[in-house]
Design a protein that fits this description.
Number of helices: 1
CATH superfamily: Exo-inulinase, domain 1
Shape: globular
Distance between the termini: 13 Å
Helix content: under 10%
Number of strands: 13
Radius of gyration: 16 Å
Length: about 200
């Protein structure tokens, strides 16, 4: 899909038009909760430390496609895109248990790797590029359906009402439905995980 020029009227984003949510200069419109931070270096967001969450404060996202362009510094670099948060989070664990995490981690198994909904819905294929190369993840939120495309290939299709595996670990999300729309954010996972983001944008479906 091609990013097109966007003309806004009263801050609204119209169907078929991409709205950039990261300005490439600073973190205006974003808020950090939890330890660590996101630094801005050479126009890129860079994860440092964690576990924390940088979330977009401007609006809730629903019936839309969220595009995240990222690259990892190593095979086991860990991050994620949290979606469908009912309220603005006060800590990163709120996002874990009240939203879905679309995982970024080339080293995880099919339930915990890039494109999975962490521990809830496994990927159907693995299409992440090697460390240092840019990846484009498109997350389609349409009612209770969440579809994930990674580098142009569909890797996940999940409905909020479908059966999921039982919760096995304390850090896995509490099971249950999530809202049709919500806030979203990016995870900075730990000291050893470095992930860069160069574009965050949304298009109404």
């Amino acid at each position: 899909m091609k990013t097109v020029a966007l003309f806004l009227l009263g801050g609204l984003c119209f169907a078929g038009e991409w709205k950039q949510l990261y300005n490439g200069t600073d973190l205006s419109g974003w808020k950090m909760v939890g330890p660590g931070r996101f630094a801005v270096e050479d126009g890129l967001m860079k994860t440092e430390g964690g576990m924390g969450l940088l979330y977009y404060t401007g609006e809730k996202i629903g019936n839309a496609t969220l595009r995240v362009v990222f690259k990892t510094a190593s095979r086991y670099a860990n991050s994620g895109v949290f979606i469908r948060l009912p309220e603005q989070p006060k800590d990163p664990w709120y996002a874990v248990h009240n939203g879905y995490e679309v995982q970024i981690d080339a080293g995880g198994d099919d339930w915990h790797c890039t494109g999975s909904l962490y521990s809830l819905s496994k990927v159907t294929k693995r299409t992440q590029k090697p460390s240092g190369e840019w990846n484009t993840m498109d997350i389609v939120i349409q009612g209770q359906e969440t579809i994930v495309y990674l580098n142009g290939e569909k890797v996940n299709d999940f409905f909020g009402f479908q059966a999921v595996p039982p919760r096995k670990e304390w850090y896995e999300p509490v099971r249950g439905p999530r809202p049709d729309s919500g806030y979203f954010g990016l995870q900075n996972h730990d000291q050893l995980s470095v992930v860069y983001f160069r574009e965050i944008s949304v298009k109404r479906n």
